[in-house]
Amino acid sequence: MGSPVSADLLASRQLKTLFGAVDELLYRYANSDIVVLGIGDWKSASAPLARIHSACFAAHYLWSTECDCREQLDMARDHMQQEGAGILLFLDQDGRGNGHAALMRAAVYARRHGCNQAEAYASLGYPPDARSFSGAGVVLRALGVSAVRLMTNNPKKIDAVAQAGIDVVSRSVVSPAAETPWLAGYYQLKAQEGHSVERREQETL
Ligand SMILES: [Zn+2]
Q1: 1 inside domain
Q2: CA angle 145-150-153, nearest 5°?
Q3: What is the CATH number for 40?
Q4: Among this protein's residues, is 131 annotated catalytic?
Q5: Residues 61 and 28 occupy one common structural domain
Q6: pLDDT in tens, 81-125
Q7: Cα of 44 to ligand 1 centre, how many Å?
Q8: Which of 129, 141, 171, 200 is catalytic?
Q9: Domain range spanning residue 105?
C-alpha cells in the first residue's frame, strides 16, 4: 500500500508568538494532522531552511532533559529567525510514533533492564520506530517548496523529502552543546540507526 500523494489544507492563520508573528497552517495527511509554522519570508525563499519535528510531550511540556527535542527545535527556530525565513513542520509522532505512554513505559523498562530505547520498545511489543516522514514531504510540496536546506540528523527525513520530489540541497546537523550521561546513550542509539551525531556540521548534498 502506497502513501497518499496529497495533503489537505484545513486552516491557516497568522499566529502571534514569543518570537513574533508567524504563519500557521494545518494540513491533514493520512489521518493525522501536520502543523506548519512559516517563519519570516518563507514563501519567497528559494531553498528555505526546514525542520521536520516530531512532537515530544516530555521535552515540550515537562522540560525533560533526557532527550534533545526541545533544544533541537529551539536551535532550528533560532537559525530560521536569524536568516529571516524558515519552515517548521510538526508531526504528531511522540515516542517514535508509539505515543507518550509507550515512551514512558519504555523508559522505565530500559532503566530497569539496562537496555536502550529501541530494545525496550521491542520487548514491550512496540515497533522500535513507528514514525513516518512521508507526510512532511507531501506537505512541503503542497506549500510550493521545490528545494530545502533540511535541518536534521536523520537520513529517513532526507529520503522522505526527496521522495516527494523536493531537492534537498544541504542538511545541517542540530545537536545541543551540553551532554548528560543519559543523552550520551541516546546519541549512541541514534548513531547506530544512521543519524549524524557530530556537532553543528553542515553538509552539501
Ligand atoms: Zn524528546
Answers
A1: no
A2: 155
A3: 3.40.50.10990
A4: yes
A5: yes
A6: 999 999 999 999 999 999 999 999 999 999 999 999 899 999 999
A7: 31
A8: 129
A9: 99-130
Q: How far is the CA of 65 from the centre of ligand 1 (A)?
A: 8
| Ligand 1 center from residue 18 Cα (angstroms) | 21
**Locus of grid cell 517514535:** 96
Report CA(52)–ligand 1 centroid distance (Å). Answer: 13
Query: Would you call 8 a catalytic residue per the annotation?
Result: no
- Catalytic residue of the set 70, 96, 131, 171: 131
Asked if the structure places residue 12 within a domain, the reply is: yes
Same domain as 148, residue 88: yes
118 and 198 part of one domain: no
Domains: count for the chain: 2
SS (H, E, C) 77-141: HHHHHHHCEEEEEEECCCHHHCCHHHHHHHHHHHHHHCCCHHHHHHHCCCCCCCCCCHHHHHHHH
2 occurs within a structural domain: no
Give residue 168 CA to ligand 1 midpoint distance, Å: 25
Residue 3 domain flag: no
Q: How many helices (H) and strands (E) does the chain have?
A: 7, 8
pLDDT by residue (tens digit) across 161-190? 999 999 999 888 766 555 555 566 666 777
Task: Give the Cα separation of 50 and 165 in Å (integer).
Answer: 15
